[in-house]
Specification:
heterodimer, A: mainly alpha, MetI-like fold, B: alpha/beta, four-stranded antiparallel beta sheet, transmembrane (chain A), transport (chain A), membrane (chain A), transmembrane helix (chain A)
Chain lengths: 314, 327
């Protein structure tokens, strides 16, 4: 029952954040120079023509009205129609979203699978050459830009060794297995940096946990080192761990924009790039809205997990 | 036969030229069922002694020499490495800080049960039943409900009782209690002392009571050992030692105790402080702080027998009549 109350509270606190995020994007779009009516009608359109287009798109309404009608529709699942193609934006997003979700999930798995054990190992060998090597490698890993890493991975594993398909693979819908294979390199490019970050955070949290009085108590009771490290110290380090994993999700979504471009993946990241080039307000708004939803959902999961992982938080 | 025999225990911290010696040739024995007080100021080596016995000193930063046998089993090998089968050694410890010594994110029950399952190989159901019985034995009311409690939901006294229950779960023949009552208030302190005493009596368990509080020693212990700067300076039955100490340091500790007659007077203090580990003092290590020091005290000092059960590391203990306290 506690869990329902916790989820409820967290959901309620997410609503203002979502409104704020969409409002900022909405206003920013209106502040940047450029008129979508001009973009649609072309540079030589007549003023009457432009006025007609603005009216059709609702751009002649006051900003408040524009925002309210958009957000109202958005919550009912209608993200509007694209200025450029006249297609339903909801359909467009739904078509592009799955591949990005699969990519970021794979990248998150890569980050955790690499970062977590590496951090735990380093913490156990603290101040040994092994620890120093791992910490240095992690710092270097954080500094590597993911587009560069992506290109290196393409050169080595796709072009030279041919283990994985190169950029511009098949779509997830037409051939899932082949598409997943094609997502391995992008997921690595995206996830390795996150793994380095997780490694560093886990290491410092574990070093702290392992030096506490209760770990000494566990040693005194004769628990095995494995149980002390992987059960007790890790659970006590889980708050910073949940925080960093949660942060990684928003980083990965942001990083997907670049990595999708490098690997020619038509996900939501490349959709955002295309829409920005074409000044397609509705699509940009929709992408930000969806990204904000994902980040908020992640925060919600992180918040709930705090309360489940640490009984002292109520 | 003694339950615990320690011979020539030495502990060094650090490596090579940065090495610092924390314990010097500590010998001690504890008989079955006996409660022994290990007394000294901070830095005297009493906690290092107990951590060494527990195998809780980090082997990467410390080195142990000497021999320690508990109930016929060596606690470490010739090279000072912890006995691999330590889990079978009937030894357990209660720590000073009940607030931090329990794992905050696991329930009391799970911390007890895992101890029983690792140390005594019980299955889940047995461990659960035994945990409830242990909580009951340490005087926790409604033990079944308390199994589900997290440490932060308990008071300091209750947490220390849980610590004692966890120690008992190891089925120890020797319990090391490191200042278990320092962090709780006085009424709880008295209850915990009574609890430890009665548990020791019921179970025939020996206790090594590490404390700086001579009041606790006189109430609880059969025998006491005074440590100073990593060395044993005096040992003997509590009544004898407190009645007429054989070492000026023990006398100083006694004089520093407040007593009903001393109201309004300044409490006596021992001038100076414990030399930091690594400092070398020629002869008696207490000499720089000792009001009775003579030239001969610059020679190395041995423990000198004062009676059948008493020894003190002071060449003048027979000649001087150090002041004790009437009991």
């Amino acid at each position: 029952m506690r869990i329902f109350r916790v989820v409820g509270t967290c959901l309620l606190s997410a609503v203002p954040t979502l409104i704020l995020a969409t409002l900022i994007v909405f206003l920013l779009q209106r502040l940047i120079p450029g008129d979508p009516a001009v973009a649609i009608a072309g540079d030589y359109a007549t003023p009457e023509n432009l006025a007609r287009i603005r009216e059709e798109l609702g751009l002649d309404q006051p900003l408040v009205m524009q925002y309210l009608s958009w957000i109202g529709n958005a919550f009912t699942g209608d993200l509007g129609t694209s200025f450029q193609t006249g297609e339903s934006i909801t359909a467009l997003v739904l078509q592009r979203l799955p591949v990005t979700l699969v990519l970021t999930t794979m990248a998150l798995v890569v980050a955790v699978v690499i970062g977590l054990p590496a951090g735990v190992w380093a913490a156990q060998k603290v101040d040994t050459p092994f620890d120093r090597f791992l910490t240095t490698a992690a710092t270097a890993g954080i500094a590597i830009p993911n587009f560069w890493l992506g290109m290196m991975l393409i050169i080595v594993f796709a072009l030279t060794l041919g283990w994985f398909p190169g950029p511009g693979g098949v779509s997830l819908q037409s051939d899932p297995a082949q598409a997943l294979r094609g997502l391995v390199l992008p997921a690595l490019a995206l996830g390795l940096v996150g793994g380095a970050e997780i490694c560093r955070q886990v290491r410092s949290a574990m070093v702290e946990s392992l030096s506490t009085d209760y770990v000494r108590t566990h040693r005194a009771k004769g628990l095995t080192n494995r149980s002390i490290v992987w059960k007790h110290a890790l659970k006590n380090s889980s708050l910073p761990l949940a925080t960093i994993i949660g942060l990684q999700v928003s980083r990965l979504i942001g990083g997907a924009v670049v990595v999708e471009a490098v690997f020619g993946i038509s996900g939501i990241g490349s959709l955002a790039v295309e829409a920005t080039n074409q000044r397609d307000y509705g699509v940009i708004q929709a992408v930000v809205f969806v990204a904000a939803l994902i980040v908020l959902l992640t925060n919600l999961i992180v918040d709930v997990s705090y309360r489940l992982l640490d009984p002292r938080i109520s | 036969m003694a339950l615990l025999t320690v011979e020539g225990l030495q502990v060094h911290f650090g490596h090579d030229e940065n090495q610092v010696q924390a314990l010097y040739d500590v010998d001690l024995t504890i008989e079955p069922g006996e409660i022994v007080g290990l007394v000294g100021e901070s830095g005297s080596g009493k906690t290092v002694t107990s951590l060494a016995l527990m195998g809780l000193l980090d082997p990467r930063s410390s080195r142990i020499e000497g021999r320690a046998v508990l109930d016929g089993q060596p606690l470490w090998n010739e090279r000072g490495e912890r006995n691999a089968a330590r889990r079978d050694v009937p030894l357990a410890m209660v720590f000073q800080e009940p607030m931090t010594a329990l794992d905050p994110v696991f329930t009391v029950g799970s911390q007890l049960m895992e101890t029983l399952r690792t140390r005594r190989g019980m299955d889940k159901a047995q461990a659960r039943a035994e945990s409830v019985a242990l909580l009951d034995a340490v005087g926790i009311s409604d033990p079944k409900a308390r199994m589900k409690a997290y440490p932060h939901e308990l008071s300091g006294g209750m947490r220390q009782r849980v610590m004692i229950a966890i120690a008992l779960a190891c089925d120890p023949k020797l319990l090391i209690a490191d200042e278990p009552t320092t962090a709780v208030d006085v009424t709880i302190q008295a209850q915990l002392l009574d609890l430890i005493k009665s548990l020791a009596r019921e179970r025939g368990m020996s206790v090594l009571f590490v404390t700086h509080d001579l009041g606790v020693v006189s109430e609880t212990c059969d025998r006491m050992i005074t440590m100073y700067a990593g060395r044993i300076v005096e040992r003997g039955p509590v009544a004898e030692v407190l009645g007429s100490p054989g070492h000026p340091y023990t006398m100083g500790l006694l004089a520093a105790l407040p007593s009903p007659g001393s109201r309004g007077e300044r409490l006596a203090t021992i001038p100076g402080r414990v030399p930091p580990p690594g400092t070398t003092v020629e002869g008696c290590v207490f000499r720089p702080r000792c009001p009775f020091a003579v030239d001969e005290c610059t020679k190395p000092q041995d423990l000198i027998p004062l009676s059948t059960a008493r020894e003190a590391r002071c060449i003048r203990s027979r000649e001087l009549d150090f002041q004790g306290v009437a009991r």
